[in-house]
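Hi U.,

Before I forget, here's the chain from the pilot set. I'm dumping it here mostly so it's searchable later in email.
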Amino acid sequence: MLQIDKQSPLPIYYQIEAYLKQQIDAGELQPGESIPSEREFSERYNVSRMTVRQAITNLVNAGYLSRQKGRGTFVANKKITMALSGLTSFSEEIKHRGMRPFSRLLSFQTIPAPAKIAQKLSVSLDTPVYEMRRLRLADENVLALETAYIPVALLPELTETVAVGSIYEFAEQSGLRLKNATQTIEARSAGPEEAKLLTISPNAPVLLIDQRTYLENGDMFEYSRSLFRGDAYSFTVSMDRT
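Structure:
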């Protein structure tokens, strides 16, 4: 039971935050479990809703809690830690962690490559490319929103059905040899549409990853932009001193 000490030098919001964090770390609050509303906290402990809101917001930003519009605030699922080493697909990474990967295809079309995409893929302007927009899920939990571009000439038999699964696996079955990729990662806030698709609050933190994937012969295979939920993902990298 939370005991708030209003004479303590520790701010009240911090006491609430520490209590909830301890409950989550101890497993007394499980992932997916709802917590009391701001009003309930306020009335139960005779503190202002603004104080409660600050504590909850801090825990949302730290990845302990997640807000779902119209439903309330819930204990967040534990973050998936991805190692930034080796070229693996989303599906392969999720399977490796004992979860079931799934892609929800939002759009799939062939377009003439606009200038920016043609430059990213190192192809001529208006070269036919696939444009795919997919939600990436693990055990039915939405983790990322991805938009990817692949030259049609590399995978002429790519279909919407294939795009729901692992495109890397399909490419290798089609005789292509994937070699490496480069990534640029930056933090930003989710826009309204992105937040709705990712089932997070508008302006919630997300990780934007720009990736260029190359074939063994040096040709570009894919350019993608992925938004990963900040409350669901973390990345690790190993570095050697040279």
